[in-house]
Amino acid sequence: MRALLPVTVLLASIVTMTPSSAKAPQCAAAPKSAEVNAIAKPFTGAPLRVSRHAFLETTPKDLYPFLVEPDKLPLWIEGVTGVTYDHAHSSSTGELGVGSLRSLDFGGTPDKERVVISDPGVRIGYRILSGPPVTAHLAIMTLKPSDGGVIFSWFQYYDPSNLIASLFITPRVRSFVKGSMKNLIASLGGEDLGSCD
User: Fold this and answer.
1) Residue 49 burial class via C-beta count within 10 angstroms: exposed 0-12, middle 13-18, buried 19 and up
2) What is the pLDDT of residues 16-38, one digit of tens each?
């Protein structure tokens, strides 16, 4: 009987777990999947596979450079060693805008991306053109002011490109997004909110 006591206490603590009081209102303020799905619809028919949110102790204006500037992306995106842009087809001549191409160097063949949504301080969306084994890819990063900071959300839509990719790609993307968010929180302060949906 005495040996069962720790198990009973453990089970009781699991059953009564609830989100922290700080996390619940922040999750309530995070964009919902349905809201972002409407933004994604013109760009991809792929389903939402991964989403993650964080509360960051900064402003949208100060966070946005971390999402787009070549010297800031390697500070938090897991595995990125360098970033370059080609703005030749940008909607904002010579600057980041819809149509800009981005190369992320992961220490080998770079992933190529095209910016498809550019709303500075609010959101950025990009499609992977080459790199991971996915098709119909779209990622949307949103910034939503919240009491004392920003709710940063990262949504990943895609289809695995083949059967083998379908077995490993979603756990890898989840891990990549979670690790990158952890790095961003370490840089700016804040809290990982998880998926919130």
Assistant:
1) middle
2) 333 444 566 778 888 888 999 99
H-helix or E-strand spanning residue 113? strand 111-119
Whole-number Å distance between alpha carbons of 69 and 63: 11
Alpha-carbon span 121 to 118, nearest angstrom = 9
CB contact at 8 A, 80 and 102: no
> Residue 8 has which token pair?
């009973």
How far apart CA 36 and CA 126 sit, in angstroms, is: 14
Query: pLDDT tens for residues 151-185?
Result: 999 999 999 988 888 889 999 999 999 999 999 99
Q: State the pTM of this model.
A: 0.85
Starting at the earlier edge strand, list the strands of the sheet with 111-119: 82-86, 101-105, 111-119, 123-130, 134-146, 149-160, 48-56, 190-194
Q: What are phi and psi of 165, to 5 degrees?
A: -60, -35
Closest by CA position to 156, among listed 167, 146, 142, 143:
142
